[in-house]
Write a structure and sequence with these properties.
Radius of gyration: 23 Å
Distance between the termini: 50 Å
Strand order of the largest sheet: 6-9-5-10-11-12-13
Number of helices: 15
Shape: globular
Oligomer: single chain
């Protein structure tokens, strides 16, 4: 056995030196005006409606990559194309270092980024190949409990009792495979109601997505599964797209590119929520691996894609990871991204699950954002057996499904408002930490607060995001054009005062220290006050 492993390592080591992964970025989209004048050539009507509802304009990132650029790269000597991203205007390629660098001579190439960052710095360091155990840290046992606890913990059952079950919302599941979804009983209800809307295998580039690893099947079951008396998902009436982006046979940055390509397709189709129970830190070739210092919110490829998805009006939910007891315990890619809701795990008794990856991000942001039950979660296996499993792989989709049910109840809220209200409902909102983030959300409280936003948005000011990192925006009621925004510390001392106009309704808090502050908004005879948390 040891000889076999050694042989594999030698092959990998040789491969790592001869072939490199990289992204080649383009400097233009010559056909952009044609696409932007014909939006339905880029996006479905549902996607356009989602943008309109949230006041999001189309821009050049929505335009597909210029096909002649792709054709010329594809025909280049020694270059293979593995994925593409219109949002980032680039291709994921593989070839020798010299063949890849030769592409920089093309007039339409803006720059090239190697997955091995040392090549970007024109440096070389020794490479030590080590084995990577490709797994999802799911400890499965045949405990046939029911799923009530994982929903009740979030007060999600109260939303279900009000018929908020995700109906009308669409979730894209980016995962490793979905075998058994088209045959197992817990998913039959989805098919009976035409709620499996389609999918794609981005790894093998085909339409057979009822294959691959069972991980995605179990993930889907926590949201859309239904076996009376045993398993009810958190969004049993939502629609689902099933995308395979993870190759379980290897760990390579191309999976991040697959992830972004799938996110772009989710956007095109009008998806509301992306669930990703996948995370990236180490790769088979350690030269490609991320470092904790990379976890700054918008550095890594999949994190950049996740932030772009958010900018299109999508809520992106990602599992925090199961590495708390490893050498590198921190939340990985894409959960570390600026605009991703990273989900940690707790036990059925609401205690921290000791495997759940911790925060903060390298730049000091709260991560994970919130938590849900991820230890002994109730899921369906590919044969329909109802079992229990552990991992943030399950706390993530449990949360994503609840967000779908919640958003159904308050459909006029933007994705940012949805995220803000969910965080604000959590039990550690004022005292976040590296294990729980802001804690366990209370979706009934979130619904109450969100309805208040809906009911009073035309008569009161709204502030978002809260907690805030750098910029806070003010939502003006109809009757006001200007106001004075004042921020006080806990001693009542004024730390900031600014006149704000409706056309530029944002205030920079970058110079304010982290902590809890009180605000006052005053305009003529009107006064409104509240609390802000500065991260």
């Amino acid at each position: 056995m040891k000889k076999s492993l050694l042989f594999v390592f030698l092959i990998i080591s040789f491969s790592a030196f001869s072939q490199q992964d990289a992204w080649v970025y383009f400097n233009a989209k010559p056909n952009s005006s044609t696409y932007l004048s014909n939006p339905l050539s880029m996006l479905t009507q549902r996607a356009l409606d989602r943008r309109t509802a949230q006041g999001i304009s189309l821009d050049i990132s929505d335009v597909p990559i210029y096909q002649p650029y792709i054709d010329q790269i594809t025909s280049s000597t020694g270059i293979s194309v593995y994925a593409k991203s219109k949002w980032l205007n680039c291709l994921h390629i593989r070839g020798s270092q010299s063949d890849i660098m030769a592409l920089s001579a093309l007039s339409f190439v803006d720059h090239i980024r190697f997955a091995d960052n040392t090549l970007n710095l024109k440096m070389t360091i020794p490479k030590l190949i080590k084995p990577v155990n490709k797994k999802f840290d799911i400890n499965v046992s045949y405990n046939y409990g029911n799923s009530f606890n994982q929903i009740q913990m979030l007060n999600g059952h109260l939303l279900h009792q009000q018929n908020f079950t995700g109906e009308g919302k669409i979730i894209a599941v980016l995962d490793a495979g979905f075998p058994g979804v088209n045959t197992a009983q817990p998913f039959q209800r989805l098919f009976d109601n035409n709620l499996v809307l389609g999918g794609y295998d981005f790894v093998n580039k085909n339409n057979d997505f009822y294959t691959g690893n069972a991980h995605g099947t179990m993930v889907l079951s926590t949201m859309g599964g239904y076996t009376d008396g045993q398993l009810v998902g958190t969004a049993p009436n939502a629609g689902y797209y099933l995308f395979i982006t993870e190759d379980v046979n290897s760990e390579n940055p191309v999976e991040e590119s697959n992830w972004v390509e799938a996110a772009e397709e989710a956007d095109r189709l009008g998806v509301d929520i992306i669930n990703s129970s996948l995370g990236y830190f180490e790769y088979d070739n350690p030269a490609y691996s991320h470092n904790y210092s990379d976890m700054t919110g918008n550095t890594n490829f999949a994190s950049q894609g996740a932030n772009m998805a958010f900018s299109k009006g999508i809520v992106v939910v990602a599992s925090a990871g199961n590495n708390a007891e490893s050498v590198e315990p921190h939340v990985g890619v894409p959960a570390e991204a600026l605009h991703v809701l990273a989900i940690g795990a707790v036990t059925n008794m609401e205690a921290y699950a000791t495997f759940s990856s911790i925060g903060p991000s390298f730049d000091g942001r709260v991560k994970p954002d919130v938590v849900a039950q991820g230890q002994s979660s109730i899921v369906s296996y590919i044969d329909g057996a109802i079992i229990s499993g552990s991992g943030t792989s399950f706390s993530g989709p449990i949360m994503a499904g609840m967000i779908a049910s919640f958003w159904q109840a308050v459909p006029t809220l933007t994705n940012q408002q949805i995220i803000d209200v969910v965080k604000q409902s959590a039990d550690k909102f004022t005292t976040p930490d590296i294990y729980y983030g802001y804690g366990i959300p209370n979706f009934q409280l979130a619904l109450t607060n969100a309805l208040a936003i809906n009911n009073f948005s035309n008569t009161t000011f709204t502030l978002y995001p809260n907690p805030v990192q750098e910029m806070i925006s003010l939502g003006f009621p109809d009757a006001f054009e200007t106001t004075t925004f004042t921020l006080f510390n806990l001693l009542g001392q004024t730390v900031l005062e600014k006149k704000v106009i409706k056309s530029d309704a944002s205030v920079s808090l970058e110079s304010i220290h982290s902590g809890i502050y009180y605000y006052k908004i005053e305009s003529n005879t009107y006064s409104q006050s509240g609390k802000i948390i500065k991260k």
